[in-house]
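Hey team,

Filing this mostly as a record. A colleague (T.K.) asked me to run one chain through the structure pipeline before their review meeting, and I want the input and output archived in the tracker in case anyone asks later how it was produced. No errors, nothing strange. Just documentation.

Input sequence:
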Amino acid sequence: MTPLEIALLSSVLTAAVIVPIMMWQGKRGRHRADQDMMRTMRKIANERTESQVILASLDFGIIAYGSDDRLIASNPVALEALSIIPDTLSGFLDRFGTDNGMRAAYYLGSDDVSGEISLNNRFLRLVCQQRPVRSNGQGFGGHVITAQDFTQIRRQEERRKDFVANVSHELKTPLTTMKSYSETLLDWGIDEKERDEIKTDVARIYDDSIRMERLITDLLLLSSIDSSGVGIQATLFDLTDCARQISDRLAAQARDKDISLGIYSMTRGPVVFADKSSIERILTNLLVNAIRYSRQGGRVEVYIGTVVDDVYVKVKDNGIGIIDNELANIFERFYRVDKTGSRQFGGTGLGLSIAQELAKMHHGRIEVESEHNLGSQFTLFLPSATRFLQKVLIEFSHKEKPQDEITRAAAILISSWLGEQDGADLDGTEALDLRTLLEIINEKVNNSMDISSVI
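Output structure:
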C-alpha cells in the first residue's frame, strides 16, 4: 500500500473508533444535562408547592408583588377576602387604597402604608411593606401586602360600647329618680307633705334601689357566664315537677292581672341532668315575661313534652306579641319590647339574654315564635338525661376530656355509678362492655324518675 492509502486507512479507522466514542460521550453529557434540568425543575416545583402550602395554611391574606410591581404570589385567604386581586401593585392601590390613604402614603414614600376597608360586610386591615424577595440567590425589591380580617374585633368593640352605654343608662335612670325624690324630701317634703305622700316617695326610692340591685345581680351573673365561672351543681330531676313549682310560685302574680295560668304535661317523667337553680331561673324568666306582656284577663299556658331525644318546656301567651323584624334581637342584652322608655313593663332587659346563655351552658337552646298583638311562644329545649349521659359516656370511654362544667359533672356522676359495679374501673371499659354501660345509665335515670314520682 502506498503511504497515502495507509494514511487514509488510518484516518478511517481512527474516525470509526473516535466518532462513536464522542457520540456516546455527547449522549451521556446530554443525559446528565437532562437529569440536572429535571432535578432543578422538580426542586423548583417542590419549593413552589411548599410555598403554596405555607401560604394556604395562613389565617390572613398575603399578596406579593415583585420589583416590577407585577403579582407573583397570593393565598386563598386573600382572594376570598378581596374577591379580586389586581395584577399590579399600582392597580391594587388604585382599587383598595384610594379612600383609606394607602395610595397617597405609598407615592409620598411614607414608611406606614396601611389602611382599613369595608368589603362584603367584613372589615379588613391592609398593610403594604417593602421586602427583599429572593429569586435564584439574587435579591430584588418587592412588596408584600397583608390583609387581616378584624370584623369580629370591630363588632365586639361596638357591642362593648353599646353594653357600657346601656349599663350607664340603666343605672343613671333609677339614680336620678332616687336623687330627685331624696332632695325633695330633704329640702321641704318632710315638713310640707302628708304622711302618705312621704311614704309614696320613699316607696319610689325603695323600688328604684331594688331595680338597681337586680340589674347589678344580672350583670354579675352575665360576667360569670362570660368567664365560665358559673358554678354547676347538676342533678337528675323531673322537668315537669320543676315547671309546676315555678307555676305555683307565680300563680298569685297571674291572678293579680286576672290571667289564667295552666300547665300541661305531654309525657311521663321527662328527666334532665342539669343545674336545677339555673333551669328554675330560665323558666321563671319565661313565665314572668308571659304574664308581664299579657293583657288583663289573658291566658298563659305551659306545656312539657319530648321531641326525639330532647325534652322541652313551652310557655305560650296571648299577649302583645313581638314584631317580626324584632325577633332577631330578642335575646340581645338590654333589648326590650317596650321602646317608649316608660319602663311600663319593668325588668332589666337582661333576662332573656341570661336565659339563653344558661340554656346553651346546658347544651340546650330557647326558640321563639310570635305574632304582633296575638301572643308569643317561647320553648326551652334540653337534652334528655339519658341521651346526654350516654353521649358523655361514649366520650368518656374514648378518653376525651370534658369540655365544660356540665359535661364534667356528668362524667363524675357516671364514674360514681361505674364504681358501684363489681370489677369495673373508673374508665368503665375494663370489665363491662359499652352496651352494658349504656343499660346502667338507662336504669339509673329510670330509677331517679320513679323516686321523684313517689316523692
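Quick notes for T.K.: The chain is about 55% helix and 20% strand. Residues 422-426, 451-455 have pLDDT under 50 and may be disordered.
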